Amino acid sequence: MKHLLQLLVAVLLTVGCSTTTEPTPTDPTDELVLIGTDTVNTHEVSLYFETAPHVGMNTVLIRVVQLPQKTTVETVIWKIDPTMPSMGHGSPGNVHPVHHGNGWYRGTCNFTMTGDWDIALTRMDHDTIVHTTHFPVVVK
Amino acid sequence: MIAAILIVSLLVSEPPTDTARVDSVGATDAHTVTVFAEPCAEACFTGVPSTTTLTVDELMTHGNAMLIRRAAMAGEAMVGGLRGGQVTMSIDGMKVHSACVDKMDPATAYVELDNLRALDLTTGSGDLRYGSNLGGSLAFQLRQPSHDAPLAARVEATVDANAIGRTFKSSLEGSADNVGARVAYTYRAAEDFRAGGQRLIAGSNFEKHNALAAASIELADRQTLQVLAIYDLATFIGYPALLMDTRRAEALIGGITWKGAWSSGWTSSVKAYANHVDHQMDDLSRSADEVAARPFMPGMYMPMDGTSTTLGSLAELRWASSTSVVTGVLDLSYLAANATMDMLPMDITVSSMQMTNIGDARVGTYGLNVIWEELLSGVATVRSSVRFDLSPRTLRDQASREILAAYRPNAPIDRTMTALSASVGLRAALSEMNTGTLTLSTLERLPTHLEMYGFWLYDPQANMVTVGDPGLTPERSWGIETGFEHRSDGAQLLVGARTQWISHYIASVQIRSNEQIPLRSVANVGWALLASADLSFNLPVSDHTVLGAMVAWTYGQSIDQQDPLPLICPLTALVRGVWTLDNVQIEARLRGALAQDRMSTVLLPENATPAWFTADLTAVWNATRNIVVMASLRNLFDAWYHEHTSINDLASPGRSIQLQVRTLW
Q1: Which of A61, A93, B132, B299 is 20 to 30 A from A32, alpha carbon to alpha carbon?
Q2: Does the beta carbon of A136 lie under 8 angstroms from any beta carbon of chain B?
Q3: C-alpha distances in angstroms, B398 versus A119, B180, B530?
């Protein structure tokens, strides 16, 4: 009976985890490039690139979970703004990430040249800036 | 009379006979002084280099071309206020595209004076053979070897005291059976030159080599095959007006031409050509202090590499009767261009950067020009010209496409553009000695690959970077040209005036200025008005003395932007007096310009330019029939000046003594 209960808990935990913290249909993070993770209050924000950051348009993915349960957060408004601090310029054509499903946000980031870039990821509440996280990226 | 002139001129310009006739000037008789008998007594511009002309840059300014100067050599020609893609530049009909996105390698840099038969400099709508343009054409016609020339060698050395300039030219020409051949080599080098007042222009030194090989084979009666190859290598060209210098520029230009004349006035020629230019520039010769403190992109070195490859074909078919001449020119070319820039921060904690300025741009230009000249009566000729161009173009590099699309989301990058130009002109004899011309034209000019696909191209005049626009509309001009010509007893007076309204004028406009690097975009900025007039005369005042002058005036205004067009020269004049006696020729030359205070402040911010004038004195002595000595005193009064078209007010050379010795066996 005790072993049966342990097995039931294990199955429930496994199912629960797969439905609350992992993207569907399978965990894509294995194939993504993690740029960085930042924790703001009770939110954990992770910035991924679909491929290694390169010159041109890059697909960016943001994963947001509520701590400590790691439940998905699906209502955040993001602004993304890549800049090159050493050159003092940004880039046009960026697409602010929007919710794509299951706590994942998808957008586009334009790098006009190789080198050190800074991605400013800003969480908005309507027109008010809630918080900005800077992720350094080396574009090759 | 006019009919006779027309027909004779057409017959003379038939390809096979034309070549032999002109080349014989330099090579028919190697043992007489006439080998140097270039038109030294002409004080008017003829397009043929005279004995006192030292460089191609100088030759262009003797016509009504103005030069955009960025260095001590390789000026970019402007004609009647038109520049860049608005002007067609060709070498024996071949297009050579600059590889440098900063225009540090104009095609004129690959032509050496002793290889030049003539420069066809056309202001107005008269020449659409080698490309669509808005009314300006510089066609460099190279010297072709003759089939019947005896073996001749020519060696020439020139020294320039100002910049310790050294020029060495040599050529060898000969023929056997039905084959003529010519090889030539030119070395040019100079240290930093001194402007007026002996002010040193640091970083203006240069060194380059140019080699040419040409052969002409007479295949059959009135059929000729010509082969041409040019290799040009610049090992350094200092650009004191720019941020960078040419580290190495290499150009390989080749073409093969078949010319044939048929019965009943039919002549034809077919040319196939290819050229490749590789231009490398950097700022590694600049001091660390200069790089660290400069206003634009300080604290980093920026080596750039640009390449252009052009393939082309030019076919011409001409039919002439006693009253008509019809010429068809099929002009096909294909360009592939690339350019990249590295940015190497002096701060080693910052990663190096690289950007693509031209991401494999491909531009095909397939044009057909038909010219019909008809003798209406004994006194009037009508000349009509129509040119149609079809131009597919694209950008192949995927990242470059994405970046450009981000700047211009609605502009199609893959395009097939067309351009249609037409002109009709009447030339009428007003009297025995006077002729008048009137031409109406509408010309369409396709944007260049830099204007459409360029990314972050630096403009030193505005100190800004510019992004191209793939969605540009071709420029179109509507123009009227008038001319008057008087010839009598060796005297010649030419007066011309042109006015053109240009729609969709292409220029750069500011789009962002809140960043460290202000950004501009190429754009169609609406209507512009361009007017120009010139007067030249050649007047023999005695058996030994000829006076000549050329005066040019240009006015340009962007109507929609309410801004004067940039780089418009003020009234400019050149006065020449040539005195010839036996084997001595002396030439006095005055050149100057009024002040220019009509400055562009929107399209390309520029400075006012004060008035200036210079005086030159040159003596040529035919010492023996094999040796010619020339001494020249340039900028006699050591005036400090810059031309309005000098980028960043780059000063022109001050006083200099030049000495040249030419020998021919």
Answers
A1: A93
A2: no
A3: 22, 48, 39
By C-alpha distance, the chain A residue nearest B296 is A87
Question: By residue range, what is the domain housing residue A108?
Answer: 29-139
Residue B557, token pair as written in the block: 């205004």
Which residue of chain A has the CA closest to B516? A88
Of A57, A86, A114, nearest to B402 by CB-CB distance is: A57
CATH at residue B542: 2.40.170.20
Find chain B residues with C-beta within 8 A of A86's C-beta: 300, 345, 347, 350, 353
- Burial (0-12, 13-18, 19+ Cβ within 10 Å), B378: exposed
Query: Total domain count for chain B?
Result: 1
CB contact residues (below 8 A), chain A span 52-71, against chain B: 54-57
A17 within a domain of the structure (yes/no) = no
Domain containing residue B184: 2-664
A115 lies in a domain? yes
pLDDT in tens, B126-148: 789 998 899 889 999 999 998 88
Q: How far apart are CA A60 and CA B611, in angstroms?
A: 58
Distance of residue B472 Cα from the nearest chain A Cα, in angstroms:
19
Nearest to A115 among B351, B398, B455 (CB): B351
Cα separations in angstroms, B456 against B77, B341, B405, B422, B468: 24, 10, 14, 35, 8
Distance from CA of B529 to the nearest CA of A (A): 34
* Entry pTM: 0.87
**Which of A73, A29, A22 lies closest to A47 in space, CA to CA?**
A29
CB B56 within 8 A of CB B660: no
Mean pLDDT for A24-31 is: 63
Distance CA A87, CA A5 (A): 61
CATH code of residue A127: 2.60.40.2480
Number of domains in chain A: 1
